């Protein structure tokens, strides 16, 4: 069971999306690689020329070993010739949510990251725990997770059939008073949203 997650972001010129993706796929599947590939997406709305790679780890030691493998590689993610920026963020899942289950859930995925006020995680967790029983039936939540490094923040991932469905579901959840989680928005300092498309080999598709 995965208790830790890494969300890696690879940036590159637009013409090299496929090359970066092919390299990352090979890197993740090398014999010495640790962890489980859960999803790989290319950005479509938001900052373009990025690949988002989500992997799960059973323990922090495996996550650290895989982080070091990338850091000490002269060709990280087998895409060093085209990658301009590499970011690797460590996360833990919200404890009351189901673990990620690979499958086909939607044509587009939304990645939302909220930077939180210091001390803002406990009320955020409480609000989400109270709100999710009513929100989950409206659309599937892949995961919400809190950062273990860097600034206090959370990242949640939602799949949709398309952007029109996303707008409709979010509008209804607000109109019905189901969303946003009570006490959550007050903790947010900065919010970003990215729409990304799953790669053909992504377990989450």
Q: What does this molecule look like?
A:
The chain has 205 residues and is α+β, with helices and mostly antiparallel strands. The protein folds into two domains: 4-92, Alpha-Beta Plaits (2-Layer Sandwich), CATH 3.30.70; 106-198, Alpha-Beta Plaits (2-Layer Sandwich), CATH 3.30.70. It is built from four helices and eight strands. It has an eight-stranded antiparallel beta barrel. The mean pLDDT is 96.
Question: How would the blueprint of this fold be written?
Answer:
Elements lengths: L3 E8 L5 H12 L7 E10 L4 E8 L2 H12 L13 E9 L14 E9 L4 H15 L7 E5 L5 E8 L2 H13 L12 E11 L7
Antiparallel strand pairs: 1-3, 1-4, 2-3, 2-8, 4-6, 5-7, 5-8, 6-7
> Helical residue percent?
25-40%
CATH architecture of the largest domain: 2-Layer Sandwich
Helix/strand structural class:
alpha+beta
Q: How do the SSEs run, as a string of H and E?
A: EHEEHEEHEEHE
Average pLDDT for all residues: 96
Strand order of the largest sheet: 1-3-2-8-5-7-6-4
Terminal-residue CA separation: 20 Å
Radius of gyration: 17 Å
Discrete helix count: 4
- Strand percentage lies at 25-35%
CATH class of the largest domain: Alpha Beta
Low-confidence stretches: none
Strand segment tally: 8
Q: Determine the CATH topology of the largest domain.
A: Alpha-Beta Plaits
Gross morphology is globular
Number of domains: 2
How can the largest sheet be summarized?
8 strands, antiparallel, barrel
């Amino acid at each position: 069971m995965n208790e830790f997650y890494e969300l890696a972001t690879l940036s590159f010129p637009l013409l090299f999306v496929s090359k970066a993706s092919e390299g990352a796929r090979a890197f993740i599947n090398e014999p010495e690689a640790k962890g489980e590939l859960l999803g790989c997406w290319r950005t479509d709305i938001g900052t373009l020329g990025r690949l988002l790679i989500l992997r799960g780890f059973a323990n922090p030691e495996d996550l650290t070993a895989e982080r070091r493998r990338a850091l000490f590689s002269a060709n990280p993610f087998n895409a060093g010739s085209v990658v301009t920026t590499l970011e690797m963020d460590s996360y833990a899942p919200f404890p009351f949510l189901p673990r990620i289950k690979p499958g086909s859930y939607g044509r587009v995925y939304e990645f939302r990251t909220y930077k939180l006020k210091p001390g803002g995680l406990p009320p955020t967790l409480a609000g989400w725990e109270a709100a999710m029983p009513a929100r989950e039936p409206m659309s599937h939540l892949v995961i919400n997770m809190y950062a273990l490094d860097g600034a206090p923040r959370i990242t949640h991932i939602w799949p949709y059939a398309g952007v029109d469905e996303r707008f409709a579901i979010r509008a209804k959840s607000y109109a019905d008073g189901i969303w946003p989680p009570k006490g959550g928005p007050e903790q947010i300092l900065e919010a970003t949203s990215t729409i990304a498309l799953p790669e053909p080999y992504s377990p989450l598709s």
